[in-house]
Amino acid sequence: MNYQKFYQARFFEQIEKRNRKGTSTLHEVMEVLKIQKGAVYKRMNGDTALTVGEMTQLAHHFKISLDSVFNDKQFVSFLHPFMQTEKATSIEFFKEFTMFMNPLKENKGEEFTYLANELPVFYYFSHNYIFNFVIAVWNHLHWEDNELCIDESIEFKDDVQEMRSTIAKLYYEQPVTEIWNSNMLNNLYQQIIFCVTIRAFKSESFIQKLITDIEDLIKHLREIALSGIKTKKGMQTESSELKIYLNDFGNYLNMVQYSSTNGSGTFIGYDFPQFLRTYNKDFYNFSRDWLNKITKRSVLISGEGYQYRELFFIKMENDFKYFKERIDKLMEIYYV
Q1: How far apart are CA 187 and CA 87, in angstroms?
Q2: Summary mean pLDDT of the chain
Q3: Domain boundaries along the sequence of the chain
Q4: Which of 231, 273, 328, 330 is 20 to 30 A from 173 (CA-CA)?
């Protein structure tokens, strides 16, 4: 067996899968290596061996782990996207979501699973006040040194709004299996309570609208759980199948997995610094088997899962009622 040709072909196969810019891989390799078309063909065909330097340049440019090419069974490499920039921003954050979701544009309905420690973040994207609140907190914690100030007039650049819309649309149009837990809104509640106590909200009106937004979100979650169809009012999206399971044992982290003809990906966390992804096939298979086991040990609450669904939403609505009462009392103290 000619190992040089085998691994070089495998390397360029990975490049082809990762090249999402819509440009010719051939011409992009020419640009990166500063060589002519014929020389690129010889490297892609395995007739000319890539040097270590050339392979490193291409791996860096196309964001490919050499472990995934040469040692996929022994090593697992995760891409930590924010270490690639001097200063991470909300725009970079959204670019990572967009890059992660892009393969679904051409390969809908194959396999997409979301294990939720917190409510899947994609639901926040279509609720303006929750979205603005979450982004304000993320900016404060990770990307800005200024005092936290949550204002109703928060505005985002057009490119952020476009990415936000694209991500939400892709998620809502994709058949998904989600594994929820009974406390997945608690972190959001605690963050809001804390922000009230430090007077981070610039106005009371924003708090009231945020509470209303959460109430609308809970109603929306009940609707989609009842129907088993994932759609969002006011969004130009196709309907897609949604299976929701409940499990309070396996919710240690937010994990998303997808599989498409362009490859499989595993995505862990959605908040810096836990934002990691890998295309390692063996890790994907191992994680998929683990998620399948969790799913089998979970209870269905969408569609026909009436009894468990009612119990779940009774708790969720009671938790929200208690949270709202706490906010009302705190506002009498901190916003008078």
Answers
A1: 26
A2: 82
A3: 3-64, 81-334
A4: 273
Are the beta carbons of 150 and 136 closer than 8 angstroms? yes
Secondary structure E strands in the chain: 111-115, 176-180, 229-230, 240-246, 255-260, 263-268, 276-278, 299-300
Query: CATH assignment of 3-64, given 1.10.260, 3.10.20, 1.10.3210, 2.60.40?
Result: 1.10.260
Residues of the chain with pLDDT > 90, as a percent, come to: 28
Q: Is 0.90 surpassed by the pTM of this model? A: no
Q: For 36-63, how does the pLDDT look when each residue is reduced to its tens digit (9 = 90+)? A: 888 888 888 888 888 888 888 888 888 7
Burial of 147 (0-12, 13-18, 19+ CB in 10 A): exposed
HSE-CB at 228 with a 13 A cutoff on CA atoms is 10
Cis amide prior to 273 (ω within 30 degrees): yes
- Two tokens at 288? 């998929």
Q: Is 247 helix (H, G, I), strand (E, B) or coil?
A: coil
Three state DSSP letters for 262-313: CEEEEEECCCCCCCEEECCHHHHHHHHHHHHHHHHCCEECCCCCHHHHHHHH
- DSSP 8-class letter at 201: B
